[in-house]
Amino acid sequence: MKEAEAYLKEHVIIEETTAPCSPQSNGIVERKNRTLTEMVNSMLITSGFPTCYWGEALPMANWILNRVLYFKSNITPHQQWLGYQAFLDKIKVWGCLSYIRIPDIKRPKLGPAANRCVFLGFTKDSDACRFLNLGTNSIIEARDAESFEDKSIKDKGLSLKDVTENAEKPITPNESISPEAEGIDAEEETPKAIEPPSKHIRKQKDFGDDFITYNVDGDPLTFKEAMQFKDAIL
Questions:
Q1: Chain centroid to CA 199: how far?
Q2: Domain ranges within the chain, ordered by starting residue
Q3: Ranges of the chain with pLDDT below 70
Q4: Residues near 159 by beta carbon (within 8 Å), at least 6 away in sequence
């Protein structure tokens, strides 16, 4: 708290506090929060994104507001803060379909030369853009991309929610898959699990039909008879 107060005094910022649980006392901030919330909600519904991606839509909504003319002046907040007008040549519709070119070193000889992605916004440290790879469900940064602002995941019949759920809940060997999910008729008999054979299986010896044993006259038939011979080892 003391560090925050020292920072405000250093930058000549007046600190004003409100009573707990009284957001109506801070009308300017609450109005801005409502504006951002409405923009984020509109972006998610229009693009077909699930609500869990609000964290990606919020920075883009704030980025747009900072580059919109303020109704009390003829300049944007971005220009008023940094002193120069922002360039809007790279702005795109949030959530539009995009194709990112696969680098030559990673591109296979057979297969697509680009990854199908969705535009999410801009990076902070470079002039690259952020995209959601629909194939791997991961966020990547790239510059070499072509976006189609009139297309979204809803136009392609894709369900980003299903992609997200499949990535968060991978199928493990212990999980069973229903026959309907695999396209198998439920009435068909499912094969039973085959138990692995024991490592110590005894097999009956078979010497064939031609194997005959003979007992020579005088040979002992029991252990007691064998021990009665003179050459028996006691």
A1: 41
A2: 48-168
A3: 156-218, 232-234
A4: 153
